[in-house]
Specification:
alpha/beta; 16% helix; 2 helices; Hypothetical Protein Aq_1857, Chain: A; 5-stranded mixed β-sheet; globular; single chain; 4-stranded mixed β-sheet
Length: 130
């Protein structure tokens, strides 16, 4: 199950309680980046909650997570039952995000945030770490 994302800014506010029938609207981020340090992608508390909820609804395994992969000029996501052996895994309070090394390099020093709209749609946003 892969859904295409477009990520708006991280300033859209916190997610609302109780996702209804979530529809992922997307991740938008600049995938052209300069060489960065060894920091990794981090997740906000909101993103951790949304990722955990999405994954628990889509998979019954405790190794499942949200996979971020490079698409055409964007990032695509999918729920995966487990990380591939070569994937980088980022965790926050039980929420797991999987990505291959090139994507992890692009997203290092970035923070993933998530917002649930009043309609129940999910928006992910990437912003530089502060």
């Amino acid at each position: 199950m892969t859904e295409t994302l477009a990520i708006p800014s991280a300033s859209d506010g916190p997610p609302r309680e109780g996702l209804r029938h979530p529809r992922i609207l997307g991740i938008v981020a600049d995938s052209e980046t300069e060489e960065r340090g060894t920091a990794m992608l981090t997740l906000t508390e909101n993103a951790g909650t949304v990722v955990s909820d999405l994954v628990s609804r889509a998979s019954e395994t405790d190794t499942a997570g949200l996979r971020i992969q490079q698409g055409d000029n964007r990032f695509d996501i999918a729920i995966a039952d487990a990380p591939a052996p070569t994937e980088v895994v980022v965790e926050r309070e039980g929420a797991r995000v999987f990505m291959d090394a090139p994507v992890a390099q692009v997203l290092d020093e970035m923070t993933l945030d998530a917002v649930v709209t009043p309609e129940g749609d999910i928006r992910f946003a990437l912003a530089p770490q502060l």
